[in-house]
Amino acid sequence: MRSLRIAPVALLCFGALSVSGCRSVTGLSPVAADRSTPPVPATPSGILFVDNTHNHPETGEGIPFAKQKGLDLFAYDGMAGIIEYVQWCNLEPEEGAYHFSGVLALLRQAQEKGKKLALGVICGRHVPAWYIQRHSDQVFRYRVVQRREDIGSIEKDAHVVLPWVKANPGVDESLVLNGTYFSAFSTLMRALSAEVEAQGLTESLMYVAITGPGGGNALEVQWSMPLYDDWQRFDFDATKQELWIAGWVRCANEFRECFPRTALALAVTDQYGCRLGSTKDKVMHARNTALSGRVLDAVMDGETPETQRVYPMGLWLSHWNRWGEDAHPLCRLLQDKREAGFRFGLQGHLIRHRDLAALEKDTIDKGVEAGATWIEIWHKDIFKDGFERIPPKCERHFRERE
Fold it and tell me: How many CB atoms lie within 10 A of CB 130?
């Protein structure tokens, strides 16, 4: 695997620096990046396969499994390309040592096949060990729940780097943005964007997902935990919520700088915290789109339908989604953007559909009806007999919107 070493790059700064080098949320304006210079990127469009080879290479899922069956995800008729999730710890196992070969290979395949690759670099629980060891005081430890067919639900230890820290421990206990963390993540993303550009592969990117400020894998705009006592201990109060929103805005600014010619996506969901009584045997997440909506509004502040660069991507598109006056809260959030003239995408739930007809009804047709410009389907839903071709009728719907 090719290893790149690139000197650290200074992070674009805004706001006042605290004594610790972390930024205070005070006086933070929504999006300060200049959007007038770069051209407006093309709107993400079509049907994408969701692949997580970089997340779980040991399972043989995703692209390796496709190759075993003689399939080429980029060669499917009616498919626009692939969305690939990559862990920060896999891209930078040692500080400044970048392993971008897998991402570059996928971009080259997309280029050769006339397709596109969408990319999400996930962090949260996937921050490199070198960072965790060096900044253990920034880590919050909790538990996740894993369901196994042989022994049922089990608890597993997990951790996440917090997007906030104390301004000056022992002197000033107020919380400020974790500038050390955001600078490290920014350095990675700038190195990745520079290498993609140097290889002439930028045009093969459909979009890059805005990721960063904590919460599970830091892909979705949500912060939830399965066990109620962990959630209570986390104490996600108003101050932390404001800093969390500011962290998303900061990451959005940085992604605009890193990828000036590429569309950006922000994954929104209604999953928030957990309810009283939530245990490993019965996980009960709370549902709330208020914070997701605030993050989305702050990140998209100043955009118009004609200058849109950030595209909401709804998680999940599944059987519970309803549109119209009685819509699910997440759907209402997207409806509001649609009615204002903005475009968005939807991702199907991680489920195995019984057959192609079920996939069409539960995901593709519903997404088309909702007005999504692109739909993402998990690889587990297409690696079976009869899924070699996506019906031409679905491809036609998306072509009409180009």
Answer: 16
